[in-house]
Amino acid sequence: MALTDSQAAFKSLYLTYFQRLIRFTRLYVSSTVEAEEIVSDTFLAVWNNRKSLLKVTNFDSYIYSIARHKAISYYRSIHMEQIELNELSIDLFIHTETTPEDDLISKEKINQLNNAIEALPAKCKTAFKLVREDKLKYKEVAAILEISVKTLEAHLTTAIKKLREFLRKEE
Fold first, then answer.
1. Rg from Cα positions in the chain
2. How far is residue 53's CA from residue 10's CA, in Å, rounded to a whole number?
3. Nearest CA-CA partner of 85 in 129, 41, 138, 148
4. Which of 15, 76, 159, 166 lies in disulfide reach of 128, CB 3.0 to 4.6 Å?
């Protein structure tokens, strides 16, 4: 469909990736407006290169890499030296069905977990969110972050170790 300039294909792509890319780019920028601008630029780049999409073997990695490069370019354009991570917390249990009592008990645990995630070093936090929240494969995340799979595994090991330590202290 991409080769026939299909608006339906673009709409499907947009619906599939928009929210995921917003969450991802919010790791690099401080506002939703900036993230939306970067994601729009990402979709525009994909659309402009739609004729060459047949050569892409891993589209997830492809679109996340474009978004990452757009976010980095955004910061270069405003002369920032360091990428700041967002202050968003993730709710790992958002789609579970529980009773109100369970919700009250687990809300504190969820807040503790979110605090632990936010306390992670920047690279560990980004790696953890891409693997755990966006459910991307290690190979895809390594490609997006331009690191080796072994380095990604090291970041995830560090993240999990720090999360366990943090949660043990909170008990």
1. 18
2. 13
3. 129
4. 159
Extract the tokens encoding 54: 């047949």
Alpha-carbon gap, residue 117 to 31, rounded angstroms: 19
Distance of alpha carbon 108 from alpha carbon 123, whole angstroms = 26
pLDDT in tens, 95-142: 555 555 555 556 777 777 777 888 888 888 888 888 888 888 888 888
Query: Distance (Å, rounded) from C-alpha 91 to C-alpha 88?
Result: 10
Q: Could you tell me how far CA 145 lies from the centroid of its own chain?
A: 11
Dihedral of alpha carbons 81, 156, 151, 38, sign: negative
Blockwise average pLDDT, block size 10, the chain, 171 residues? 65 90 87 90 88 85 90 69 43 53 63 80 86 84 89 90 79 62
Q: What angle do CA 53, 58, 61 make, to 5 degrees?
A: 105
Tokens read off for 113: 């977990």
